[in-house]
Design goal:
The protein has 215 residues and is an alpha/beta fold. It contains ten helices and five strands, in the order βαβαβαβαβαααααα. Strands 2-1-3-4-5 form a five-stranded parallel sheet, sandwiched between helices.
Length: 215
């Protein structure tokens, strides 16, 4: 059973998300917060949740600042940004703050469910349009990865194929279907890729992959 918190100030958006998640009996909405401050208050009382669906623009404290704080205090909790914004600055700031995945509110129910599961399993999902913007941002932004001694990073053919799929924002399930392998195998390869590139989040992974001409 997956326990999650929804952080959303719009009544209509909240209702839409709840209706989409109602189709999946193994996902339980344990709490709802109207802004980042409320989310932190909820977690102070009970942080035994698996994942948070976080809006960005909210009163009192926005989702990016809340994500930054939650990532430090509760690193075990996964965070999915679910927003109407695909603006470059929002995307970049959210992922730098520690968001694990980033999808748009227009995302269909099945895709949201897949995103939740993939994120819990160590994946990092982006809506396709967000993935494109992220790669474009990296091309026009100084490297964010910390300086390190140059080294040759060797990926297997399969790891390279999966990295290319990751860069387009696909979920583990879809990557598995495209490559005719199991989601578990995809997850294992992704873990290896993160380890080889010494990356801690999607932005850093894609940045290092681009630096090393792997994508």
């Amino acid at each position: 059973m997956t326990k999650l918190i929804i952080v959303e100030d719009s009544v209509f958006a909240l209702q839409a998300i709840e209706e989409k998640l109602a189709n999946f009996s193994d996902v339980v909405i344990s709490n709802i917060a109207r802004n980042g401050e409320e989310a932190l208050e909820v977690l102070e009382l009970d942080h035994s949740v698996d994942i948070i669906l976080m809006d960005i623009e909210m009163p009192a404290m926005n989702g990016i600042e809340a994500t930054r704080i939650i990532r430090k205090k509760y690193p075990q909790i996964k965070i999915v940004m679910i927003t109407v914004y695909d603006d470059d600055n929002y995307v970049f700031d959210a992922i730098k703050a520690g968001a694990d995945s980033y999808i748009l509110k227009e995302t269909k129910a099945e895709k949201i469910y897949e995103t939740i599961n993939d994120t819990l399993n160590g994946g990092a999902v982006m809506s396709p349009s967000i993935a494109v913007k992220t790669l474009q941002l990296l091309k026009n932004t100084p490297h964010i990865a910390s300086a390190a001694t140059p080294q040759t990073i060797e990926l297997s053919k399969r790891e390279t194929e999966i990295l290319e799929q990751i860069s387009t924002g696909l979920t583990n399930k879809i990557i598995a279907e495209r490559l005719f392998i199991s989601p578990f195998t995809v997850k294992r390869h992704i873990e290896n890729i993160y380890q080889k590139l010494q990356a801690h989040n999607r932005i850093e992974l894609l940045d290092k992959a681009r630096q090393n001409k792997l994508i």
